[in-house]
Specification:
- The protein is mainly beta and 353 residues long.
- The chain has four domains: 21-141, Immunoglobulin-like (Sandwich), CATH 2.60.40; 153-193, no CATH class; 200-270, no CATH class; 278-352, no CATH class.
- The strands form nine sheets. The protein has a four-stranded antiparallel β-sheet with strand order 5-2-7-8, with no helix packed on it. Strands 13-19-15-16 form a four-stranded antiparallel β-sheet, with no helix packed on it.
- It contains three helices and 26 strands.
- Mean pLDDT is 87; it is low at 1-17 and 130-134.
Length: 353
């Protein structure tokens, strides 16, 4: 008799446990389309196998919830307090096309139903929940974390703080090497900074009496290089070595070229200008035959920029696009403006070093 009662009690306890229903949380909301109309379609909810907070074993499955006139109603086992981590994957399908997908983490039941915003996880949120004593969260548990890490450059072997960052050949970030006073180049190398001194003298009036007799004039500085001196007389560029000579800062006009009373002299020159990547070509005579027929002349280098080219014909500066055109290092004169046999051509321009 005693054994029969004990068996009956065990059977009742087992029946009660097998028949127990895990707690369910209610999600109820009204869904709208972007144009303000109510959503009509199917919400497909899927989940992995997990153990609920009451130790109920929830088997992996998928449930289709029909949504009409935007009304969503579903009851799901909570995952935020589950014994094993789990979430619900929710696909919104309309007219046979999946519109978008969400991840839901469902809290324990409440006296009021939850709305979608209460259960939907934002990108980067932990994809599941477990008791505080659970193991560490892995990268795969955080939505979008692995993709975010994949596009971030890793730390290189030469990484260091408080240094300029350099991307090495593998795409990793290293610290630039060198002295703190060095300059960093675009290829990641470093070295002593190039000295840059910029000193241009423009429109200087040489000192000396203009009376048709005096041929000695003095500049305020010594042009460096000497070829950088452009000396204009009444707006015409004079020919250095033909019209005048210069030694240090002393300008001496040749006999027969002495400035006359009321003449205007202006001088332009440089003083040891050093600009990284920039060079100067002064007073170059382009290659080409001066015969009144040939209109094509070649410079020794290509002007950079092209607009830096100044072409003088018999001391008069010509207009680019009107008197001539430039292509690379080739000057082509306009028809009807071809240099004549006795003409003098002088060109000055900048180049890229």
């Amino acid at each position: 008799m005693f054994r029969s009662r004990l068996w009956l009690l065990c059977a009742l306890a087992l029946t009660s446990r097998l028949g127990a229903t895990p707690p369910l949380a209610t999600i109820s909301d009204t869904l709208f389309n972007a144009d303000g109309t109510r959503f009509n379609g199917v919400v497909v909810i899927s989940w992995p196998t997990f153990e609920a907070s009451d130790t109920s074993n929830i088997a992996a499955d998928t449930e289709n919830i029909q949504v009409t006139a935007g009304i969503l109603y579903v009851q799901l086992v909570p995952t935020t307090n589950a014994d094993t981590a789990a979430v619900y994957t929710v696909q919104y399908t309309s007219f046979g096309v999946t519109q978008f997908t969400q991840t839901w983490a469902v809290p324990p039941p409440s006296t009021l139903p939850f709305r979608v915003r209460d259960v939907a996880l934002a990108p980067g949120s932990v994809t599941g929940s477990a008791p505080a004593a659970a193991t560490l969260i892995s990268i795969a548990d955080v939505t979008g974390l692995q993709n975010a890490l994949n596009v971030r450059p890793p730390m290189g072997t030469a990484f260091g703080i408080s240094r300029s960052a350099v991307i090495d050949a593998t795409g990793a970030i290293d610290a630039a090497s060198g002295n703190l006073s060095d300059c960093l180049h675009v290829d990641g190398t470093s070295g002593p900074c190039a000295s840059t001194s910029i000193s241009f003298i423009d429109g200087e009036v040489p000192q000396g009496t203009i009376n048709g007799t005096n041929g000695a004039f003095t500049l305020a500085n010594v042009p460096n290089p000497t070829s950088s001196l452009s000396l204009f007389r009444n707006g015409l560029l004079l020919d250095q070595g033909v019209d005048y000579t210069i030694v240090n800062n002393a300008v001496t006009f040749q006999s027969g070229f002495l400035p006359q009373t009321n003449d205007v002299l202006l001088a332009t020159y440089r003083l040891s200008v050093s600009i990284p990547g920039v060079g100067f070509v002064d007073k170059e005579t382009p290659t080409g035959t001066l015969n009144g027929v040939n209109g094509t002349f070649t410079l020794s280098m290509t002007p950079s920029p092209a607009t830096s080219l100044a072409v003088y014909r018999n001391g008069l500066r010509l207009a680019s696009g009107v008197d001539y055109t430039l292509s690379g290092a080739t000057i082509t004169f306009t028809t009807g403006l071809v240099p004549q046999t006795s003409d003098t051509l002088i060109c000055s321009y900048r180049i890229s070093n």
